Amino acid sequence: MKRHFGSGLRTILTIGLGVAAMVFVATLPAASQDKKDAPKGPCIGCSPDGTTTPRLADGHPDLNGFWGGNAGGGGASTRQFERASDGSILFDFGTDFNDRQICDDDSCIDPNEPPYKPEYLAKVKQISATYYGGTTPLDPQMDCRPLGIPRTGIGGMQIVQTPQSIAILYEGAPYSLFRLIFTDGRDHPKDLDTTFMGDSVGHWEGDTLVVDVTGLNDETWLAGGVGNRIKYANIHSDQEHVIERWTRKGDVMTYEATVEDPVMFTKPWVITPRRVRHAGPSDSSVDGLLETICTPEKAHFVPPSDKDKPSCNYRCSDVAPKK
Prior knowledge:
single chain, mainly beta, four-stranded mixed β-sheet, 1 helix, 16 strands, 3% helix
C-alpha cells in the first residue's frame, strides 16, 4: 500500500512486515523549507492552556481543528516513532503507542474482543490465522476500501464544526475520506442504502457528542491491521449499529463506542476507549491535514509458513534483554 502526501519534497519510508512491504510516501511542499522557523498561524480549536476546553458560541465544546497528536504524553505534537530496545525504529504516524506490542500470537492482544456467536467466531479465527506481521491480504483495506465505523478511529483527522453539522476529514482511512454528522435534530432516512461509513446523526449530552451510526454495509472490518491489538475483530453484518461518544477535555479527545450486531454478536461490544490530542497551532500546508492516496499492492504478500514460529515481529519482547 502506498500513501502519497501533497506534492514537492518526497521522503520514502519502507517497513518490512514479513507479509508485505508497506510504503509510506510522505511529501512536504518545497516552500515549507523556507517556513521552517516561521511563526505558526492562528490555531483552530486550540485550548488556551491545554487543560481548558474551548467552547463555541452555543456553549458546546469546540471540536474544530486537526487531531493527530499523542494523547499519552506531554506536548501537542504528533509522536511519529518509537525506538525499540535493539535500536530499531518503528514509524507510525499520529499513534499513541502506550507501550503496546505487536504479536502474531495471543500474548499481547487486547482482551476486550467482540462477543461473536460460536458459528461466527469460528470464521473470525480462520481469518485471524492468516495474519502475519500484523496484517493479512484478506483485510478489506488492502483493497483500499474505506475502513468504516468504528475502525476509522480518531487519529489524523480535521474536524469542521457548525451548530447544524460536523464534518470529519480523515487523512488516511485508508485514503483521504470524509463523513458528516448531522446535529440539527434530524433522524436517519427511512429508506437508507448501506454504505462504508453509514449515516450519522448526533446530539449533545452535556459536553459529550453522542453519534448514532446506522446503514453500514458488511464490506468493512471492525478492527485489524498493523499496530492493532484486537486480533479477533474483523467481520460484521449489515445490521451493525454503532453509538459513538466524543468527549473533549482540554486538548485531549476521548472516543468511546458501543457496537451492536444482532446477527453476529451475543451482546453489544463496548470498545476500549481511544484518545487523541489536538495538534495545536499549525501551518496546514506543512503539518496539518494532508492528501492521501491508497494504491493496492497485494502482489507482495507472503503467507505464513509452517516453519514460522509466533513472534512479536518488530518491537519484539520474546528475547531476554542483554545483561
